[in-house]
Amino acid sequence: MEERARSCLLRSRATLEQDIKASYLMDHMISDGVLTGVEEERVLSKPTRREQAAALLEVLLWKDNRAYISFYNALIRESYGDLASLLHNDLPQLSPEGEKSYSNGISPTVQAILSEGGVPQRPVVFVNRPALLNKVREKLYKLQNAVGWVTVFGMAGSGKSVLAAESVKDHTLIKECFPDGIHWLSVGQCERADLLVRLQSLCFRLEQSQVSEAPLRPPSSLEEAKERLRFLMLRRFPRALLILDDVWDSYTLRAFDIQCRVLLTTRNRSLTDSVSGRFSVPVESGLDEEKALEILALYVNGKLHNLPEQARSIVKECKGSPLVVSLIGALLREFPERWGYYLRQLQKKQFQRIRKSSSYDYEALDQAMDASLQVLKKEHRELYKDLSVLEKDVKVPAKVLSVLWGKELEDVEDVLQEFVNKSLLFRDCNQRPYLYYLHDLQLDFLTEQNRSQLAVSLHSKVIRQYQQAYSKGLPTSVDVECLYWYRFLPHHMARAGLSKELYSLMFSLDWVKNKAQIMGSAHLINDYVEYGAILDQENSEVRLQFQEFLSLNGHQLEQRPFPDVVQLALSQPHSSEVYKQALLQAKERANRGQLYLDWVNKSNQESLSRLVLHPHQNSVYYACFSRDGSKIASCGASKTLRVFKSTSGEKLQEILAHDDEVLCCAFSPDDRHIATCSSDRKVKVWNVEKGTLLRVFEDEHEEQINHCQFTNTNRRVLLATCSNDKITNTKPTSQNTMFGHMEPVNHCCFSPDDTYLATSSNDGTLKLFEVQSANEWKSIDINSFFPDNDDETGVMVKCSTWSADGARIFCAAKNTVFVSCHLYGGVCVCVFVGFQLWDFEANKRMAECSGHLSWVPCVQFSPKGSLLLSSSDDQTIRLWETERVHTSSAVALKRDFDVVFNQDDITVVAADSKNRLQVLEVPSGNILATLLGHTKTVHHCLFTEDGQTLITSSEDTTVRVWRWRTGECLVLKGHKEPVRKFHLVGFSSSSPALLSWSFDGTAKVWELSSGKKLQDLECHHGAVLSADISLDGQVFSTASADKTAKVWSCTSWEMVFLLKGHKACVRSCRFSWDGKRLATGDDNGEIRLWNMLNGSLLKICSRESKDSMDSFHGGWVTDLHFSPDNKVLVSTGGYIKWWSVERGEALQTFYTTGANLKRIHVSPDFKSFVTIDNIGILYILKQVEGGQL
């Protein structure tokens, strides 16, 4: 230190010791880097304030020029202007080396200007925020040629002061805009007297630079101080910038309204509304994660990658608040082992324990936030405290708060505007209406303050206010207000302890219907899981019934247009509360003429799958559990990756992952990352929580990548991939390429201890590689188990898996599972077709899991084995409980069947999987007869009116006429291709005839008694797929794969009408009972109604848009029937629909478990309907009584 400066300190020592508070000054000096933490502790160890001041001066005398200047600036900032004047004339000059060190790269001229103006130095730990910094400087440049105000606003602890100080550390900015200097004044919350002291200090500092003039007495009033400051800024410093830090109210601001250039930091954005020349810069409430972690690393003198896991949790908990990160960082510098402790304090909302004596105005976090709250009027303060009932990260519209506070919407918006202006609340202006939300720290602070009354009082208030506002029923609109109540009403009831209200709400089918339509089924399922403990106290069975209904029908509830929930619920078991409520509503609506169908024989069916999801709009190729079983990831032809909860199906993440089909996905051992591989030859690794891309591997494989899997343990994390280029790679920390297969590699998996990697290939082998060396350890030739295989493609080994103990390996090829009993020999073979569950210890099939409607390329057990996950080309994922699935004892019927209705007795005939005809009694299921004869698939079967004769047609090109009770059979031969179907023709009572049609494009008429062919017609150039005869027997129609339908005369056998317009194969046709209309259905799911007087088109019956199966009817329209009064039409496809013939609009939809229905049989009164789906389930549906069709 220069001798002149040292002498000044010694001369002024007694005065300084008497007046200064060392702890306040040392914070600034530590920030400037001229004082160490050890020296601070030594000073503070002294018992009295005066002894601490003496100790500080003693330390200072042994320092350099930088310490003297830092001490001087600290006096200015802490309003010791009179003491600073004692040191001003002896301020030392810095050497070039000192300038460079002190300025941290800032030019000496700039540093001198900032030091004289009292602009604070950078904090000890500083992280740049360039985007915000540039915004502030951009606004400051607007003050170059005119006076004005730049306001930097944000909530407490958002870093406004550091940003303001940093923005003026720019040589070009000062030179061009503020050549007369930068002057900093810390304002804060101050009374009139304190404000006068601050103005006196600022005037003194400005007058000190005028060395030629005699010192003036300090101004004695605010008015005098304001006028003196105006004179100084206008006459002597016209192009200076005045920085007012932390201004709270307009009264304080008016003292500085002196027509000068001002940079202002505040929590209240509306302060400058009354002045001209305004520019503002909002400061985000939090740093991004990487910058916040960088601050913590700097505080503890560590590397970013060496920070403990609690570091991320701390940043996440405080949402990156610069204040909280800095406070905790400073504490950790002194207590580096307390990461867990400070994280727990944040989580427990113990803000008063996060405290540090620093340059910030408040010693603890709770004091900083309470100061913001105290500036509100008492009434508004109470309203603000009500916001503690909100959940974190939830944005609410003003309408919700209008209900909560019981005020007019306009009044509520005014109050919210005040909160926003004071940075007590945030507003999302990207939506209309505006949405409002609290920062997590603000919410935590309010929650802590209201802890005693929050659980009951405030949440009860929410419920009371809601019930008053919606006394007439549930909200029905789809705006954001409605969304809030459907999302959080159960939460408020649970928190308020209103269990009866919660039961009444969640055990209501109306609530289920409305919430599912607005938010989807996953949110509802999540509610039943989250509040299960409360609901089970009332009735656990009912809770499970509602949860199961949503789990099994959730994929239907995602359909648009939205399905009829009452009709869906009528498919629940008769004992279910869901069914009982649905039946009551169905009867009530039936009285108003609506149509509902009851599935009367459903008691024989048991739902095996626990949850059905529809995550993608295309085939699902792969689905897997996370290692902890809490999440499921899926991927497929839609090129997307989706992650959702395994309990409810609630979507957690959706990522457009690749440019082509995504073939596989896999969780890392810690579940933080997920890998995907694709036909685009790339492997990508993603952050599960954020959905961000972490790494791309694109040069390792030359063809599509079929499978990927991480190691099972964290000991050494590797990712294995295999491809059509015949090689297998392991990555990412190191890379080994494993050669040996001669054809594409379909699958790879690590052994449980990660010692071996198993690979499955189209070359017919299963190979085991040592992971450490990448050498082939063992090869098993699966080809050798198929010595008689004549297939040109050979034996393709599709996949493999290990037993939990690693002692056995399983692989699949040609519908066969091979189990290696030992890795050193012995293979036992178990054969199965389809998706089945086996006990390999007992070599016994446990279950055949029916439910998927297409190929199932992937199944996987959960980590504990209690759940089974299957994904399918039918676009769904099903979750099964392995202990509950079983092999059904029911007969699996095919969809080609007929029904005889005889009063209350129903007789069904259908072919089984071996082309045997089974005649069954319903609902007992007793087999009355088994008929053998057809050699290929049976396409159609029909009883005559007396029920004694049965007629069938088949893939074997024949029609057979059976006396089914005796087994006698007449065979009709003549078609060259499979006979699709037939109809009975009543030309005369003495000679009944039969009309048959075939894929060969012909229709033939047979005499039923003798089998003689009466007519042979060439009808279409394509296959004839359907035909029908009018009730009067005058005309018949044919529908064909050539996309046309034709109407023929039964007397002349000539064509009457050619019906064009369908854009796909016309698969079904049916005359109305009065013969005036013909209905035709095609493979797009479209139904057309034609006028039979002139052949013109009357109506097109279809959905507004195609469904998830890219159809208007869930698939082909396979059968059609008119009601006796010709007002209603029933159709089958992927499901069953009833239509208004007059309007062409759907009246009702019944969703079957399976799909691709071929026929539906209708009772004469049009009140009973029978069909079979493609997985063999029989449906007997009866109209709910109460209304007329």
A few lines on this structure:
Residues 1-90 form the CARD domain. With 1189 residues, the protein is an alpha+beta fold.
How would you portray this structure in words?
The structure is a single chain. By secondary structure, this protein is of the alpha+beta class. 30% of the residues lie in helices and 28% in strands. The protein has 32 helices and 62 strands. A hairpin with a 2-residue loop joins β36 and β37 (905-911). The longest helix is centred in the middle third of the chain and has 26 residues, at 532-557.
Features:
WD repeat, WD40_rpt, alpha+beta, 5-stranded parallel beta sheet, elongated, ADP binding, 1189 residues, 4-stranded antiparallel beta sheet, 62 strands
Number of helices: 32
User: Main beta sheet: strand number and arrangement?
Assistant: 5 strands, parallel
What fraction of residues sit in β-strands?
25-35%
What structural class is derived from the secondary structure elements?
Answer: alpha+beta
Q: Distance between the terminal alpha carbons, to the nearest Å?
A: 103 Å
Pfam families: APAF1_C, CARD, NB-ARC, WD40, WHD_APAF1
Protein name: CARD domain-containing protein
Organism: Pygocentrus nattereri
Keywords: Apoptosis, Repeat, WD repeat
Secondary-structure blueprint:
Elements: H1 3-11, H2 13-19, H3 22-31, H4 37-44, H5 49-61, H6 65-77, H7 81-88, H8 96-103, H9 108-116, H10 130-141, E1 148-153, H11 160-167, H12 171-177, E2 182-186, H13 192-208, H14 222-236, E3 241-247, H15 250-254, E4 261-266, E5 278-282, H16 289-299, H17 309-318, H18 322-334, H19 339-347, H20 365-374, H21 378-386, E6 396-397, H22 398-405, H23 409-421, E7 426-428, E8 435-437, H24 440-449, H25 451-469, H26 480-496, H27 499-506, H28 509-519, H29 521-530, H30 532-557, H31 565-569, H32 577-590, E9 597-599, E10 609-613, E11 620-625, E12 631-636, E13 640-645, E14 651-656, E15 662-667, E16 673-678, E17 683-687, E18 693-697, E19 705-710, E20 718-723, E21 728-732, E22 736-738, E23 745-750, E24 756-761, E25 765-770, E26 776-781, E27 797-802, E28 809-813, E29 816-822, E30 825-831, E31 836-839, E32 844-848, E33 858-861, E34 867-871, E35 877-881, E36 897-902, E37 905-911, E38 917-922, E39 927-931, E40 938-943, E41 949-954, E42 959-963, E43 968-972, E44 979-985, E45 993-998, E46 1002-1007, E47 1013-1018, E48 1024-1029, ...
WD repeats: 655-696, 738-779, 849-890, 931-972, 985-1016, 1017-1049, 1059-1100
Domain CARD: 1-90
Protein name: CARD domain-containing protein
